[in-house]
């Protein structure tokens, strides 16, 4: 089994997990770094509307009035107290941020972190965010496609020019550029429909499967993406995939880390390059994070080594 597969942990930058003190998230990030966790992943909502029942993937985790700190700002704070853990979003609602500003913000954070940023991006599910930002909800897919391609241009060309239906600029100087060659890696989130497949082929470095997708279906879709990349002259072996671990409970009905981690081999075999699980189902708050990270690292290494 490949030793290049990463252990990816989702941190709940929402609700009440950190007991209202978001500065404490820097301690959680440092604990992940110290424990050898490969990636930490934050989520995004710019504003929340009242209709959380429109969330399609189960019960929404918070009421609309709950805290949702901006993830890139929070990752910048974590970057200042860490040195190796990769800093990711999963997902960032990219169309809510203008392409030029997103490119500059991400490049700055990549510089500050020493080249550790990864952007998981998608359109999001909530119309109210687009309304609040004055952005056409019905045009969100086109805007995502153009925003990602424009960011790639701004990260690689100096000056950069770009023309599309929704984003246009000529001789734009966006500096500093990211540390990482080719720019900040873009992991496209969502169902592998025709449009998302085209985005991955054009601008993506990775894929974040939609919540609830089975491991078998993930394997099928990974094969489809790799074929499309090869057909486009890109290296299919370079594709990155965030593979969620199916969560398993013990006999008492509590989520069990060791039983859950036992499924990592199957997820890796399906094409995951980053095996992902959320911290909050295993520990109630930040005080339990160091012990959780140490246990998760040990359990993951055991699976990967084939022991």
From TrEMBL:
Gene3D superfamilies xref list: Luciferase-like domain
GO MF, one annotated term: alkanesulfonate monooxygenase activity
A Gene Ontology biological process term: alkanesulfonate catabolic process
Organism expressing this protein natively: Embleya scabrispora
Keyword Oxidoreductase: yes
Any one Pfam family match given in the protein's UniProt record, by short name: Bac_luciferase
UniProt KW keywords: Flavoprotein, FMN, Monooxygenase, Oxidoreductase
UniProt domain Luciferase-like: residue ranges: 20-244
Protein name stated in the entry: Luciferase-like domain-containing protein
């Amino acid at each position: 089994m490949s030793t290049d597969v990463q252990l990816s942990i989702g941190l709940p930058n929402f609700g009440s997990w950190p007991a209202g003190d978001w500065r404490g998230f820097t301690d959680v990030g440092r604990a992940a770094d110290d424990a050898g966790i490969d990636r930490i992943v934050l989520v995004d909502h710019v504003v929340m509307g009242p209709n959380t029942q429109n969330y399609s993937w189960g019960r929404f985790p918070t009421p609309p009035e709950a805290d949702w700190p901006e993830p890139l700002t929070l990752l910048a704070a974590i970057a200042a107290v860490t040195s190796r853990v990769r800093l990711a979003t999963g997902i960032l609602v990219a169309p809510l941020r203008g392409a030029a500003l997103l490119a500059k913000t991400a490049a700055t954070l990549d510089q500050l972190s020493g080249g550790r940023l990864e952007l998981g991006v998608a359109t999001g599910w909530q119309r109210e965010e687009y309304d609040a930002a004055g952005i056409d909800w019905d045009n969100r897919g086109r805007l995502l496609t153009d925003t990602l391609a424009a960011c790639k241009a701004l990260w690689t060309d100096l000056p950069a020019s770009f023309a599309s239906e929704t984003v246009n600029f000529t001789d734009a100087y966006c500096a500093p550029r990211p540390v990482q060659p080719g720019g900040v890696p873009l992991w496209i989130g969502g169902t592998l429909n025709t449009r998302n497949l085209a985005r991955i082929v054009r601008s993506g470095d990775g894929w974040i499967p939609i919540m609830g997708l089975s491991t078998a279906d993930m394997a099928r879709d990974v094969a489809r993406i790799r074929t499309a990349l090869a057909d486009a002259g890109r290296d299919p072996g370079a594709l990155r995939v965030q593979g969620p671990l199916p969560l398993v409970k013990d006999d008492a009905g509590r989520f069990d880390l060791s039983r859950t981690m036992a499924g990592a081999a199957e997820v890796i075999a399906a094409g995951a390059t980053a095996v992902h699980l959320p911290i909050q189902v295993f520990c109630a708050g930040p005080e339990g994070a160091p012990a959780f990270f140490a246990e998760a690292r040990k359990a993951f290494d055991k699976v990967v080594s084939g022991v």
